[in-house]
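User: quick one, fold this
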Amino acid sequence: MSKPLPNSIYARDVEYLLHAATNARKHEETGPIVIDRGEGIHVFDDQGNKYIEAMAGLWSVAVGFGEKRLADAAYQQMLKLPYYHSFSSKSNEPAILLAERLVNMSPDKLSKVFFTNSGSEANDTVVKMVWYFNNARGKPNKKTFLARVNGYHGITMASASLTGLPVNHRDFDLPILPVKHLTCPHFWRFGLPGETEAEFTDRLAAELEQTILDAGPDTIAAFIGEPLMGAGGVLPPPAGYWTKVQEICRKYDILIVADEVINGFGRLGTMFACEYYGIEPDMLVVSKQITSSYQPLAAILFSDEIFQGIADNTAKIGTFGHGFTAGAHPVATAVGLENLDIIEERGLVAHAAEMGEILQRELRSRFTDHPLVGEVRGVGLIGAVELSADKATKQRFDPPGKAGAYLFARGHEHGVIIRAIGDQIAFCPPLIITEPEIMDMLDRFALALDETWAFVRGA
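Assistant:
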């Protein structure tokens, strides 16, 4: 790992930058790994070390690094119209075309689009839109959101309140919204002794309905959830979960918000995870793979019913008093259009389904019986290996994250960048990954895993 040498770029990083999701004091000691360039599924640091980017950056680089077509799309749009806003009835062609394309490729119920710059901004906007809509339709008490423990929806004040991860709340005085966090739908960790998966699903459905009844259905605005939970540890829901959630929400006039910031655009082997799980959302949030994160962009797709309520209220009060300077940015939306062209032309959704079967098979066959592994899970090209201090009892490490942090660091030494979510190790490679590259990625991971096993045993 790079060290903060005097007068070096590393020392300047330590002096001037505060890093996200980082122990700042530890960073002062170690310095950064400075990523210099990328090519395909690989990135290279400024010392020439080559890494398989097994997390596609942050769950996001669908078409791989160094894709010239996306650079060209940005360049050409910058020459023509480098920036404009969407306030006061202004628009631009790439934003219009991308909105149309998103509506045509998404679940049938969704007919309108609002652009933001990140998934966090999008989910923050979802809260405001839902409140605005309910005020407009004469239901001002319908303000509380239902979310889940371990769910991740962003880091703004509103979206971090929806997030169900303690590290995103602690010492930020969050949550600030009226939000109720329900049991995490992870059967292996939260199922009761002797409980079947079907019984677990029924218990979570009963908890959802009882929470609504206890609060009063007229106070519950929306249920927000990732179809497959990502940053909480790659947690596929139990069978039948989303069917029951939707039935209960429809019964009590509660909007369903599908957060596909990580799931969308092929990650599970379908264009959207809503298709995979049979979800019919009122609102759908996308980001990350919409541009392969070459440009900041996110979008909220929502139903005509919500649009009509919002539109009527803008006529009543004179405006929709919300928006971002860079919302519907012409360069970002132009890159989004080109990125979707690449995904479709190269058949990357079908490719992700094919490679996903290989990834899931190899993760399970190679690591399920490893003495350090409690569970292997995932769908498509997203997977996780959860480390456990005791396989039989599912015991967590003390302190939590001890093994995961060591494994994360050993991965770097073996040329693979994974993500440690506590002691859960996530994989989310670019959609372009091939079978030989999957094998190479897992070979490198296996070396790091074995070294971590020796570490936790004190060998």
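User: anything notable?
Assistant: The radius of gyration is 22 Å.
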